[in-house]
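Q: Here's a chain of 287 amino acids. Please give me its 3D structure as tokens.
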Amino acid sequence: MRFVIVTGMSGGGKSAAIRTLEDLGFYCVDNLPVSLIDKFAEVITLPNAEIQKVALGLDVRTDHSFTGVSGAIDTIRAKGYPLEVLFMDASDEVLIKRYKESRRAHPLSGEGRIEEGIEEERRVLQQIREQADYVIDTSQMITRELRGMMEHIFVEEKDYRSLMITVLSFGFKYGIPVDADLVFDVRFLPNPFYVEELKQLTGVDAPVRDYVMNAPEAGQFVEKVKDLLTFLIPGYIKEGKNQLVIAVGCTGGQHRSVAIADAVYEAIREGAGYGIKCVHRDYRKNI
């Protein structure tokens, strides 16, 4: 038996998560009254129950104060029911953008500003977030990536840590990414830009990648970054960090940073219990 409560910030991806769980074979119920949660749990966990995978969606549309949800979760767990809580989240900036694009009002904003509704919702949901088994931040995530992460948790049943890592290549001439947590400068490596046959290629092309990685310093650099991240990531997870952006830069973001970002991504993704992707911001701007 698997019983999942899906909740989180309005606009954080709860509906998409429920649809994905439905595709994965879960029986899904959305916005059940809070007063019925405990009784619902009793019914679906009866010994002769035919349904073995259930997802229950809850958000502030059901109860603006969310009074009783935290207590209901504690009660269900105290009774020994196999309950898991999935909390969907996103940054305030992304939530505001999504609401503006959809032209919908935030359920807690009333006649006020969207920002005020989001702030109030975070306050209301803080305790629920702390009770969650999984926190997925969809700020930089597309639907395909969300589905992959959901399959990782609910199909493959692998260990999950609430962290999404983005390895991002960039060019210093276009500015350091404003959301970068760690910035690595690889301009010390030989530059393929000055090799005529490589000048119009990028770090995703094999000739450029081989040229960059054949430098002895390149492999050493990747190994040292891997060692550093192996040390740092558990600490970030322990402190509840949901997004980690690792920026790798060279002059134009076309050759060296792209090849090294890909190498770092490959070095840390094997066996990772967290989400991870590689993005190249500037790699075609000079072409």
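Q: Can you summarize the key feature?
A: The beta strands are 2-8, 27-30, 53-57, 83-89, 134-137, 164-171, 182-185, 243-250, 275-280.
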